[in-house]
Amino acid sequence: xxxxxHYYAGSRQAGTSGRSQPVFNPATGSSEKTVALAxxxxxxxxxxxxxxxxxAWSKTPALRRARVLDRFKTILWERADQLAEAISAEHGKxxxxxxGEVTRGLEVVEFATxxxxxxxxxxxxxxxxxxxxxxxxxxxxxxxxITPFNFPAMVPMWMFPVALACGNCFILKPSERDPSxxxxxxxxxxxxxxxxxxxxxxxxxxxxxxxxxxxxDIKAISFVGSTPIAQYIHQTGTANGKRVQALGGxxxxxxxxxxxxxDMAAGALMGAAxxxxxxxxxxISVAVPVTDAVADALIEKLVPxxxxxxxxxxxxxxxxxGPLVTEQHMNKVRGYIDAGEAEGAKIVVDGRTFxxxxxxxxNGYFVGGTLIDDVTPDMSIWKEEIFGPVLSVVRRxxxxxxxxxxxxxxxxxxxxxxxxxxxxxxNFSNEIxxxxxxxxxxxxxxxAFHSFGGWKxxxxxxxxxxxxxxxxxxxxxxxxxxxxxxxxxxxxEFVMPTLG
Length: 500
Fold this sequence. Notes:
A seven-stranded mixed β-sheet has the order 15-16-17-14-13-19-20, sandwiched between helices. The chain folds into two domains: about 1-250 and about 460-480, Aldehyde Dehydrogenase, Chain A, domain 1; about 250-440, 3-Layer(aba) Sandwich (Aldehyde Dehydrogenase, Chain A, domain 2), CATH 3.40.309.10. The protein is globular. By secondary structure, it is of the alpha/beta class. The N and C termini lie far apart (about 75 Å). Helices cover about 40% and strands about 20% of the residues.
């Protein structure tokens, strides 16, 4: 059984801790690989290599850094299928879905190639008599990213392209559930000309995470995952003097107004709720139809589409939806459906009954698309993030009730409204207390030149990811005030200095 290694000093490095764990193929339920789990000492070794590489990389002109990323972008584009196959084999998502993930990550790389533009500073002449002032952005040093299983390529690419473009060295701690994509990206960065030590991968579990959080030479931590872990990352990282951006959980709602195009809304819900088997932080997991008439008509359109979902492994390119990532998570999702039924919700389409009959995949971690009606805010299936192919319907009588429902939830990551009414759309966009909003767009993930992040318990820290918010997070400002001898005063001054 092969072991998935770390990556530092420009090559793959075998683990030395003596600890590892299996990596499963979710479609078959079998394991043919293990992943090394780093010790604190191994993390120290990687950080030391990154710290040694940082002075030269930070002094490399931004244009040259951008050219490395541009070459990486070309490699990524040409080998997207290879990366998608690695993702599907360990995560379980369909090949086309994995390709979409790679493409969205590549867009951040494209943004990062603009480093010469976004690293520009500011200059003010004659802020005082004979005195000039200028501001520059400089890198932080060694930074780290801790990323989740659901997007093993895209989420790391929300982080490291911008960090590298800004002159930092980056250490990635990917999910131990699907770690292979991280090694491919590391090798391709080296192939693109990235110097040794500038990008590293540390495989591992909580020991590796804690080692990064406590290491004095790590200046910033980026994280995407569940809210309890995001809170822990933020509290621990900031207590150790680090910048932290920690994105947490979500419970994303879609409001369907009476004037909405129901065919459009139903089609959007299908992809937003069941794409990637619902294992997306931006998945729509709650439909909020306004009036019972809209709810009944919407459910009538959804049921046959959900029942027609083709559920299978990524090797079957006709699959609409693959398995869940682990057996434990499969059982957790089924448990939420059980709980909803026990609490009085109506199971309209029951994914628990799905059986995979494709030869060789009978033991995969599959759950069918599930639709649950008559869900109320006191139920666990509304309160908690299920992270599976489960769509809840919470009926509301009017627009205000729909907005109040959304505002009452602790999460505020993404939201959508489907309507033909411009006033409703504008008021919803301006008034809703959620970080990312879609108007007739079911999954409002911003493009790379904007920034990604929610509000409330969906984020901890002051900066969202990628875009100019990413640049601000991975740089610090230095302001220099200059006076040359011809304009200098010769007498000593003992009062607060002024420059006029």
